DNA sequence: ACCATATCGATATTATGTTATCGATATGGG
DNA sequence: CCCATATCGATAACATAATATCGATATGGT
């Protein structure tokens, strides 16, 4: 398998492009059009599209819309659905579990774990288990992606258990920086970080 | 007022530093210590700290912990509380509204708006108003920061109304890129973008 | 009192990401 | 049939951020 690689920034722009491409109804799409839709630089978009597209763009026409959609979906892994679990089924965990949009992104949340749960419960059609059953269940389901929505005090310990159970990627909503070995990828969705930028802006 | 400016990356690291500094009990803290706590580069941390600190660090000792805490809080605007509103009180909006942690970050959510609400309702001690009362209420309260948790279809229209009402910063959880004039700052907390990085990683 | 060293600030280097430029090419209009 | 032009790919210039290096300095240990 030829392993192309993409910058984080590019990867983060792809979902926007995909969204637009799915709406557009023309056979071809130009970098110019995409760029102006999102207020981005034309060259940047062209580089992004060229880097994911298997077939070259054509002068004066642009890229073939359908092929491009397929290529982006492929890079993002949509279509091949990943199964994930949520640890910490409080307000935020519930909100995420209920968020139906994830299936559009190739993500299916198949189970939840919560320390307050003593016996298996159900949230809509998703089972919630006690935390102490986490490791065996994740192992059995071969879960590779986990979402952490527990509080800061418990997040690191949960994270360690997830890694022990074989999880490869972690999406962390707890307000702290998780420490993991280099082969595990962690994405921190720390609200304090986002707020820092906005808050500092208002201070001026 | 001397208007120092900080890179977004630095601003996003500051909350982590702050968290650590508050826990530490020594009179001084070195960049080295902070860096090793978070697995960051020592020089990077030193540059960050030097850029926010009003007084210089001392060789062999580091920075004065308390002064540093104060300086970071100042840059982040904690202490001076900002009032914010939430538009879209669904699962996610409720989760955010209930999240008590924001007060630690100088953010107080004072009202919500939702299109399904016809007459004023209460969520704990926060009032929820119909969307059509949004503009006058935001004007009256002089709200500068708004959180958008409506669906993608309505987000741009909500955003336009917020700007019209005088909002200066927007924290957007809807999965699309909002178009605003340059003087408004938007932070997109697009789940699809975060997921893109993780998902691509698992594909390899 | 002096030396070893932790830490600092400053500067230089490297890496990454964005924007500008330019020649090539294919399409549509005169 | 040819020219004007939209778009491409490639390369170059620029911007920003991360890391490495180095001399200066103050502290603690001998």
Report on this structure.
- The structure is a homodimer of 204-residue chains.
- Chain A has 2 domains: 8-76, Orthogonal Bundle (Arc Repressor Mutant, subunit A); 82-194, NAD(P)-binding Rossmann-like Domain (Rossmann fold, 3-Layer(aba) Sandwich).
- The first copy, chain A, contains 8 helices and 9 strands.
- The first copy, chain A, has helices at residues 8-23, 31-38, 42-52, 65-76, 91-98, 134-141, 152-165, 191-202; strands spanning 28-29, 63-64, 82-87, 107-114, 121-123, 126-130, 145-148, 169-172, 185-188.
- In chain A, the strands form 2 sheets. A 7-stranded mixed sheet of chain A has the order 5-6-4-3-7-8-9, with helices on both faces. A two-stranded antiparallel sheet of chain A has the order 1-2.
- Chain A starts with 7 loop residues before the first helix and ends with a helix.
- The model of chain A has no long low-confidence stretch (mean pLDDT 93).
- At the A-B interface, helix 1, helix 5 and helix 8 of A face helix 1, helix 5 and helix 8 of B.
- Chain A binds a DNA duplex (30 and 30 nucleotides) through residues 7, 9-10, 30-32, 41-44, 46-47, 50, 56-63.
